[in-house]
Amino acid sequence: MNLIIIILICVFSSYLIKRNIKKLNLRDSLKNYIDSLFQFKEFSNDLNDLKYSLNKLSKTGSILIFKLILFSLPYLIVFLIINLIQINSQIMFIIPLSPYFILLLNDKLS
Questions:
Q1: 14, 47, 60, 95: which has the fewest Cβ within 10 Å?
Q2: How far apart are CA 88 and CA 101, in angstroms?
């Protein structure tokens, strides 16, 4: 029964990941964060430019952290369920990664 629950949660998680990965737009968020880091590096002596650069850096960094938390949420959920079921083995860390394998598949298959 426990194995069926874990498999169903992994299948549901992979469906959610496949459906929402493009909405997260992690690549663009990382690019925006790196751009704001370079903009902060090249600031002038003007305090307003420095404030603008720091505000943009903190905003893009917060958005990136939030998106990374959302991306890792299925792993945490499956890991917590495995801990609640009390499966003690070395694959306890690998099983929660199984929903992410759907990202390795070619998009032409779907």
A1: 47
A2: 23
